[in-house]
Queue: 2 jobs
Job 1
Amino acid sequence: MTHMKTTTPPPWHLVGKHDVFPEADLDEIARFNFLANMNRYLAETLGPGNKKTYETRVKPAFEKREGREPASRHEIRDVMNQDSFHRVWSALKRNTMEQRQQAGRSLVLRQIDDLVNKATALTEENGNLELDPSLELPNYVAGVDHHCMPGSYHTELIPNDISAGANYDCGIFVTTGGAMGRFSDGGGQALANFAKNDLKDFHPKRIVDVGCTVGHSLLPIAKAFPDAEVIGIDVSGAVLRYAAARAAALDVKNISFRQLNAEDLSVIPDNSVDWVQTTMFLHETSEKSMRKMMAEFHRILTPGGLMLHLEQPSYDDSVPLFEQFIRDWDAFNNNEPFWTRLHEMDLVAVMEEAGFHKSSHVEFKVKAVPDPVLATGDVSGKSEDHGRAAAWHAMGARKEMKG
Amino acid sequence: MTNQTASIDPFQHVNAKSKGKRPKYFDDPAMEHLMSMNLSLMQELAVTRERLDSLERVMEDTGILPRSKIESYRPDTIAAQERALAHRKLISTVLRSVEQELDGMKPRPEGTADS
């Protein structure tokens, strides 16, 4: 087996901590270190084996039987799911994710009372949280636990629970191998740089981040625009409580968090927001709800206002079928039911339908800003972990200026 | 190391399954368990090794014991025998189900042929 130069993810103890970050003991740190290295191994060492097994035996057997090449990513998936190598790789990858959840939950839940008390005190002191316990969970959240998180983002085991947020915060560094930086904010930093440096005459006074979870991507944006009013929106109280406490602990003052479903943002007036942002969020919704959200985003934006969505690139004709199949893995193995449909949709048409002129469409690549302390360098290069690398595709539009 | 909390028992929640159908990777459901158990054991072995590594490095850093002293350690006869027994015990513990199958095999009555 040929190996590229072995690289290792940064050790977990370098993760960015704050006053509501769970404390880890020696073995808990080691568990995360193992899992980060396991992820790296599955991506870099075994990952290329999927293509190899496809080219050397799966595709030839299909062609022999059918007299043609596989015609879609779904046909490739059907035959690859019968292949012994791909089965083992998939099982290892799924188990690694399940173990990461187990490790995070066991670490967080043993200290949950302390964490809840700290978070409650910080949030009350800062008054940066507005919850709506009567908010009904959308079906796409209630029906499936995204990326194998037991209880997803919203389940509350005790009153004022923040365990979902704390588990997400301490584990994302493991899943991404630290590629988004100590505070998992390299994507948000890149967006802030884009808005500051690439957009002329863009001075947002009000910024809304939808599906903000614990605020990883929103905090660097709030810091980049200290005079702006910044609002994080999510349907889950469990992540918002943690987000508000985390923002307070990290001393970001121009930010608040509200429990809302973005399909109905009627509490936000028309033409009142300069920038509405989602980051790796659309794929966790549904087609119907996404269309409703787009219309709401158009309504709340000021003329000239910016809407941006960070996702993985769509499966257009330039993406080879095998790559579509492997990028689709999370849809079927990591509880991401909308992933596969979203990536074949024409989002420009969806945005147009919501009122955004096609001519105002913006699209560009985003890479996480590297963390100088972790010295991971360019983390978005060739060892991309099929949709988990810290590199994204930004799609969006500017709302038309009223004449 | 574990500050158990009062309001919930973490053990009851840590292993919760995520909502949604879990894919089947193997034809035999038992294989799914074997794979999961193996990977968890690899994880816990890695955790133990990291702790041992911490122990040795801290001892060296604090001047208690150089790592070379551990590396060159050879047990005397009694210690070696104790360790061999520990290995034997571990092997037996892990191979319990195979031993049990062997125990269950009844000797064939005289004169019966192989089937």
Note: Chain B has a mean pLDDT of 87.
Job 2
Amino acid sequence: MNTSNIPVLIPAVFMFAALAVPMVGLWKRSLSIYPALLASLLAAWYSASGLMHTIEHGAVSYHLSGWVPPIGIEYVLDPLSAFICLVITAVTTVVLFFSRKIVKFETPDKEMPFYALAMLLLMGLTGMVMTGDFFNLYVFLEISALAGYALVAIGDKRAPVAAFKYLTLGTAGAAFYLLGVSFIFISTGTLNMADVASVIHLVDHTVPVMIGLSLIVLGTGLKMALFPMHAWMPDAYSYASSAATALIAPIGTKVSAYVLLRIMFDVFEPGYSAGELPLAQIVGYLGAIGVIWGSILAICQKELKTMLAYSSVAQVGYIGIGIGLASPLGFIGAVLHILNHACMKACLFLISGCLRFRLGHSWIPKFEDSLRITMPWTAVAFVVAAISMIGLPPTAGFFSKWYLALGSIEQGAWIFLVVLLVSSLLNAVYFFRIIEKMYIRPQSEEMIKAQEQAESPTWGRKEAPWSMLGPVMLLAVSLLVLGVFNVWIVSNFIEFMIPIGL
Amino acid sequence: MLELIQGHYAYFFLMLLFVIGLYAMMMKKNFMKKIMGMSMVQSATIMVWIVAAYKHGGTVPIMDKSIPVDNPDLYINPLPHTLMLTAIVVAVVTLGVSFALVVSIYRNFKSLDEPTILKRMK
């Protein structure tokens, strides 16, 4: 296979799949999942082979339709973008495999639009990761955002309101980003990221460039749901259908975080965006506030999906802390947390989907110890994912926090260290609350009366079908594997991604 | 100060428009007014690019024997205009999606007023 074409192949595969899904779906609606699943698998394979290739031979650049950059659009595949693409496509493949039954159950007759929109969303996200051009990034950002709005709106009665809130804020974020790019374009006269990076030191003391970079950080922060700009996220995630949430939540915000890393440390020099302008520090402190705030609000929630959405606000804050440290250890922590959080959050949202599929609700006060008998494997997977979210070894969540803590100690940023410790305790509060209900709380009298059969619950009677349970168990096992092999991942992959001069 | 305003008054107006749009998106209770504010924000962003590309005395970038090629000040940069064609398309699509959502909200809640809808969502 010709590896020089990989950068453009990954978005192109999703683009053709977005066209293939309606064609297949019009002919036979139940078959519309298969093109989507095939495209995700193909893109995951391309990303994996691209990652191996770039680790050995360095970055691959693809010139779209043969125009040489700075004039043409350039697609770049370097270790970081290949890694993020691999995370996105792998998690998506698992979620799509899971979603076959639950999409039929929650939104009947909507399979074809759901999978077509999912493909468009992934095309936008992978394009954002691959592109090396500021305006092309804006176009891909809008493609993924529009598909995301529509996916959120396919839900219950309240979903359109949440989607509307998401739409207004997301559009504002994109407009901020475009305004920032306009200032940088006025100052440098080019839109190619590598080209901007080579000439930016001539103009980086001027006011327009400072304002432009600040506006770009503001726009991507809105898309990433950093602390003061997170208002759209909990509603959008809790009212959307389970499959849509499991698709958007693990990967949607991570790509914006990647764009932030790319622009702050690759296009601009780290000494500028973390030294002259204290933007990285601002992102770090906002992330730290978001960690505490999101965790406290998650404790107050009574619905599993809403709780997980607030916990997403907190987990994005960890990535913000990693950016704010502006050191190699902080960078490692942020990238590792992107990977770990994608797996953890996908696992937890899939579990909430299983609960909705079997119990018809995910209302936390109604959980009791019959769950551990009727859905044993789901409960085990939940415990593993919860321990990973809290950050106990040997699960994956511990190690990204470990690198962040090491980075905080190295930089002398004691506030971040305190925030990491306190947030772990808060995470423990809201996850152990559910584990306690699942394993210890006896069944109440009303619940026993409500069940028609008087006998005790049988083992595994309510377990989800294997096509839903398989992905959940796969993700739960992958959390343990990622935790055990984290040093191998860091030394073999993430070491090559650290920007020069960090 | 006067020279600054004389040279950049278009930018001042556009930033004012941007801020007015943001205010409408955040403070207005009616969903249609929020959409108007969103449209203002997008229009202001598009206009900033167009104004930045303008040169006094420049002309369209098409080969003409009577205009020398060696002086770039005589030609206007076409790149921002072409980029903004794309951005206009994106803005129109976003407006379409937002109108579709508003129609769906009205069918579900029989109102477009935010406090009323939040009350009925409970």
Note: Residues 120 and 323 of chain A are 29 Å apart (CA to CA).
